[in-house]
Amino acid sequence: MQKTTNLVIDTLLGTNNILVVIPHAHRENTDVTISPLMAAGRMLAGQLHCYCVINGKYKPSIIDMNDVRALCKRKKTTDDFLLRIKQFKDEISENNLLPLVLILRSAEQSLDADIVFGYGQGERGRDDRPHRPTIAPSLLAKIRMAMEDNGFSTTLAETASNLCGRESFSLNQLFRQKNYLSGFYDPTVRSLLLTIQADKISNDAVAQTTAARLAQALTPFADSMSLVRRVAVDAIDTDTIHDMRYIFRVYGDNRQNDIINTSYINDLARSIDRNGLLHPLVLLQKRDGRYKILCGFRRLQAIRLLGRKWVEAKTFSEDDFSTEDFFNISLAENTKRRNLNPIEIGNFLESASRELSLNNARLAEQFGESLGIGKPGAKVSQSTIHKYRKLYRIRERHDSPEMIADIINDKLQFSIAAEVLAPIKDTADRDSLYLEIVKPLAPTRPQLLQIVKLLQSIHPRLSIAVADPLVRKSLEKAVNGKHKATTFINALRKCSDGKKAANDNHSFAQSVAALRKDTFGSKAKKADFNITRPGKQSDSLTLHIRLQKQSMQETIDKLRQMLNDEERLQELQKLLK
Question: Could you give the CA distance from residue 210 to residue 196 in angstroms, rounded to a whole number?
Answer without folding.
Answer: 10
